[in-house]
Write a structure and sequence with these properties.
The structure is a single chain. The protein is of the alpha/beta class and 294 residues long. Helices cover 38% and strands 19% of the residues. β8 and β9 form a beta hairpin. α6 packs across α7 and α9 packs antiparallel against α10. The longest helix has 16 residues. It is globular. Bound molecules: pantoate.
Length: 294
């Protein structure tokens, strides 16, 4: 595995690759969710490029950039074991040198849900992902369902900026008790970790109702909210039932695929999770097709 820290070296390494490239972009603190993306990339491409970069432009000033979990040596070992070919791990000054001035801003699809609660977040994500796409020139790029709006925003950007590549969405990887794997789970103490699977239980409650025929977005949101409210360790931020293609909040019953998503605070962790309904659509091909549109 080649570990690269500079743009020049990355250009050279990319030029030397002839086959199909799969890319997985991460902020490190790798877990089984990241490894599932890499496994998929490994299976479908000749070479795999992974990146580790905690991107400062996607954190608001009061957010957790300085405390975000960092475990570089362990991450590199995991990537080596996963047979990644190239890892790009630049310093902040390499990606954002002094006098850096260019940002990528995606419209409508980036404005609701997470975009509304985390101003500047998707501008930072779209900017760094654009830079990483330009540098790594993948044929396929892999993202996790857990960040469903991120996937939709990136798909929109890929279409709008005419990138010739495929964005592939892999289903959320969960612990046995249903908690979606996230680097930020490291912030949870024992009691908070015990409470955190309530997100999954809340999603399931709405999914069960959907399964029984309920299609009214308000009723589905309420079913999830009820479960969240019953867990005092967790502070609910929002529960949304949105069109899975446009991410517009829904108010009328619909048979269209629906993205049920939520964010909560548990101690100093802000956790998000989601499920696409009908639940049978939570697989790689359907998620890739539906989330944010084709
Ligand atoms: O999902 C993440 O880890 C980040 O938002 C990403 C896509 C690596 C951009 O910094």
């Amino acid at each position: 595995m080649q570990t690269i820290e500079t743009i020049i070296e990355l250009h050279k390494a990319r030029e030397a690759i002839t086959g199909r490239v799969g890319a997985v972009y991460t902020m490190g603190a790798l877990h089984k969710g990241h490894l599932a993306l890499i496994e998929q990339a490994r299976a479908e491409n000749d070479q795999v490029i992974a990146t580790i970069f905690v991107n400062p432009t996607q954190f608001a000033p009061q957010e957790d950039f300085s405390t975000y979990p960092r475990s570089l040596e362990q991450d590199l070992q995991l990537l080596r074991d996963a047979k990644v070919d190239v890892v790009f791990n630049p310093l902040t000054e390499i990606m954002y040198p002094p006098n850096y001035q260019t940002y990528v801003e995606v419209g409508e699809i980036a404005r609701g849900l997470e975009g509304m609660r985390r101003p500047g977040f998707f501008r930072g994500v779209a900017t760094i992902v654009t830079k990483l796409l330009n540098l790594t020139e993948p044929h396929n790029v892999y993202f996790g369902q857990k960040d469903a709006q991120q996937v939709a925003v990136i798909k929109q950007m890929v279409r709008d900026l005419n990138y010739s590549l495929k964005v592939i969405v892999c289903p959320t990887v969960r612990d046995e008790d249903g908690l979606a794997l996230s680097s930020r789970n490291a912030y949870l103490d024992k009691n908070q970790r015990r409470a955190a699977p309530v997100l999954y239980r809340a999603l399931q409650a709405a999914a069960d109702l959907y399964e029984k025929g309920e299609r009214t977005p308000k009723a589905l949101r309420l079913a999830a909210q009820k479960v969240l409210i019953a867990e005092p360790t967790v502070e609910m931020e929002y529960v949304s039932a949105a069109d899975a293609v446009t991410l517009n909040e829904l108010f009328e019953a619909t048979e269209k695929p629906l993205l049920l998503s939520m964010a909560v605070r548990v101690g100093k962790a802000r956790l998000i999770d989601n499920l696409v309904l009908p639940a049978a659509l939570n697989n790689r091909d359907d998620l890739t097709r539906i989330l944010g549109g084709a």
